[in-house]
Specification:
It is built from 14 helices and no strands. With 224 residues, it is mostly helical. It has a single domain, classed as Hypothetical protein af1432 (Orthogonal Bundle), CATH 1.10.3210.10. α5 crosses α9.
Length: 224
């Protein structure tokens, strides 16, 4: 990321970055600013910084791979917005969005926030863009047919600089190639982690894996 990334992790710095950038759609800037302020209300400071770091990383990837930067920023700001919501149980939230919170999501508590995030973005912030909402819903699992916006968020959420994990260098190297190769390496790392701990894996992740392999991303990674 940019050398001044630490300054942009503050609310003031992040808002200034959005306001000064000509890359983001002017009509979306008020909503973007509203979401930045919402992060401070809804999340712990550590989680808020993570979200901002994901957004900055996602913007770098969006530029690298020619993906819509405004959509990536919207999705990044919304992806963990419901992570710490406690006002309703996921079962109660399901009444608002049965299509988002299916049985597979209910079975994996770590995925609840992604589905709830879609509900919050639609109901509280008027976001209707299907590419943004799909990116938020599948930012943890990925899915077959995931758009470039969703793929950027899937990768950015995993490689943002505040995260620490074994094998990071290998994942980052893969992400420097193609977006598909980056997704494949991120997903591989996630699946290995879950399998080693006998955790449930949502079917969307397997479908995403099969799609990426069929697209030849794995062969491309091996050649590099």
């Amino acid at each position: 990321m940019h050398e001044s990334a630490d300054n942009r992790l503050s609310k003031k710095g992040f808002l200034a970055w959005i306001a000064e950038s000509e890359a983001f759609a002017p009509e979306e800037k008020p909503r973007l600013a509203e979401l930045v302020r919402a992060l401070e209300r809804e999340l712990s400071e550590a989680r808020r910084r993570h979200v901002c770091s994901v957004a900055l990383t996602g913007d770098v990837l969006a530029q690298r791979f020619g993906v819509d930067r405004t959509r990536v920023l919207l999705a990044s700001l919304g992806h963990d917005l419901a992570k710490e919501r406690t006002d309703l149980s996921v079962e109660e939230w399901r009444e608002f969005a049965p299509a988002q919170i299916d049985a597979g999501v209910l079975a994996v508590p770590a995925l609840h926030h992604a589905a709830l995030g879609v509900v919050v973005m639609v109901n509280d912030y008027g976001v209707e863009d299907p590419l943004v909402l799909s990116a938020i819903r599948y930012h943890s699992t990925g899915c077959a047919g995931l758009s470039p916006v969703g793929r950027v968020l899937f990768v950015a959420d995993y490689i943002e600089p505040l995260r620490r994990y074994a094998g990071r260098a290998q994942v980052e190297a893969a992400c420097a190639g193609s977006l598909e190769t980056g997704c494949l390496e991120v997903l591989r790392s996630k699946l290995v982690y879950l399998l080693a701990r006998n955790r449930r894996i949502h079917r969307a992740s397997w479908e995403f894996w099969n799609e990426l392999v069929s697209l030849g991303a794995e062969n491309h990674a091996q050649e590099e």
